[in-house]
Design goal:
Layout (H helix, E strand, L loop, with lengths): L3 E3 L12 E3 L26 H11 L3 H14 L3 E4 L8 H10 L19
Parallel strand pairs: 1-3, 2-3
Helix pairs in contact: 2-3
Length: 119
Amino acid sequence: MPVRIRGADWSASLAPTPCVFVGYGSRYANPFSKGDRGPSLLGQPMDAADVVDLFAATLQGPVGRRYAEQFASELHGFDLMCTCPLDMPCHADVLLRIANGPGFADEACTAFNLKGRNR
């Protein structure tokens, strides 16, 4: 089963297993960042778990599902590399689940077990 590894975009080609860099600057990057204001009315700054959950939720909408399906087919079977610390939540975990979980793009899993498309 593919895993998340930590590294920079230039180090993806040096990894011992086939991997894809999904961090900042890549087409798979999370558009939300720690410290951004959240989508709630209060707009509190988001932490790492919040931005990962928002990324997963975005992939559940009608447009997001199309991206999730595309990402699943492109990332299936690859280790994913990002700059996030391995002990912190990361959108690469969501991408791993979408690309390699049962039904690939059928589920986007987060700390709150958000589901992908309705069945």
